[in-house]
Design a protein that fits this description.
Order of helices and strands: HEE
Number of domains: 1
Strand order of the largest sheet: 1-2
Strand content: 5-15%
Largest sheet: 2 strands, antiparallel
Helix content: 55-70%
Structural class: mainly alpha
Distance between the termini: 71 Å
Number of strands: 2
Number of helices: 1
Length: about 90
């Protein structure tokens, strides 16, 4: 019993689609890992800024009445909440 040539074409097409999907999933994972590392690096930089900057605190006009932190530094843009930068 011989295999229909159409079956082979479909199989190759499916293999190609599976490979494309797998490659895209790998790229997504790499991008998410890069994003996570960058966010961690930003947090580290903000911790240093909170300790080293001679802050000029300004009231954030967009804050709601129940926001815990209402002031940010006009120089380095960190918020006046030392708990966030420990």
């Amino acid at each position: 019993m011989s295999q229909n040539p159409k079956d082979n074409e479909i199989s190759n097409e499916i293999k190609s689609l599976l490979e494309q999907r797998d490659n895209m999933n790998r790229e997504i994972i790499q991008a998410e890992n890069t994003r996570r590392r960058m966010k961690e690096n930003i947090k580290g930089i903000e911790k240093q800024l909170f300790r080293k900057c001679k802050h000029k605190w300004e009231y954030d006009q967009g804050c709601a009445f129940d926001d815990h932190t209402k002031y940010f530094c006009s120089i380095c843009k960190v918020w006046n909440n030392h708990y966030w930068y420990e």
